[in-house]
Amino acid sequence: MSQESSWSWIQDSITEDLIEDLIEDLGARVFVILAQLIGLTSLIFVGIWMGSYAGGFAWQSDPDLEFNLHPLLMTIGIIFLYGNSILVYRVFSDVQKLKVKILHATLLALSLIIGSVGLKAVFDSHNLAKPKPHANLQSLHSWVGLGIVILFGLQWLCGFISFLYPKLSKEARSFYLPTHKFWGITIFFLAVANVLMGTMEYATELNAFSTYKSHGIIVNVFGICIILFAILIIYILTERSFERVKPDGDDDHITLMNVRNGLNDDESRTPLMDE
């Protein structure tokens, strides 16, 4: 092979690699942006639903309207912020791992706080109802919802202790990591299912599908947005081409499953196994 043809072959190889990397990077960005747009759309529609069709918002001065904060805050906290918190390892794949961990924990903490306020809103709406209080925790939706918040709190606490402070050993982290991953995704799935369950429950109570045609459309579009948002989050998490890469000098980045299996960081990688 001549020197000229060799140089041409090298240029073609480099160009193909660059194009492939650009396509993968663009694909990841497109899916992330699409997830944000759909997630924000769901917030807009639940806001319209609660604000325009369910009577608006209030705090303890009007327990009936305080209830309307529950769907809005739960969608913001347990769906939108929670979903984005588990995306940070994909969105900031080239950022120092410790910074991403802190962002992950912060978003989850904010999500948990907002979700807890949303939970308080529904308890207040029952306990402060007139002429007499309503019973709490009667529906399947309420049981699952309370369980989600409790699991979420335990998950955040265990994750913080294991991966941030005081931070367990590599071996202990590698042992706990699969459990952390499993419950993180499971809680998100449960939250999505429970939001859809609660949506139908409240929409039926408000006669959304029999009184106003537009009311039912708002409810259905909101539900579809929640489903699409969840699908995009899971796709981005499981797509291998979007996996996190180790930035130069990032000593905190370890593929823990490889530590557990006695492998080097350059050897066999598994999706969703960086923590």
From TrEMBL:
Residues 34-238 form the Cytochrome b561 domain. It is found in: Membrane. Keywords: Electron transport, Heme, Iron, Membrane, Metal-binding, Transmembrane, Transmembrane helix, Transport. One of its GO terms (cellular component) is membrane. It holds the Pfam family Cytochrom_B561. It is a multi-pass membrane protein. Its cofactor is heme b. InterPro entries: CYB561/CYBRD1-like, Cyt_b561/ferric_Rdtase_TM. GO terms for molecular function: metal ion binding; oxidoreductase activity. The chain crosses the membrane at residues 30-52, 72-92, 104-123, 143-165, 177-197, 217-237. Its main location: membrane. This is Cytochrome b561 domain-containing protein. It comes from Didymodactylos carnosus.
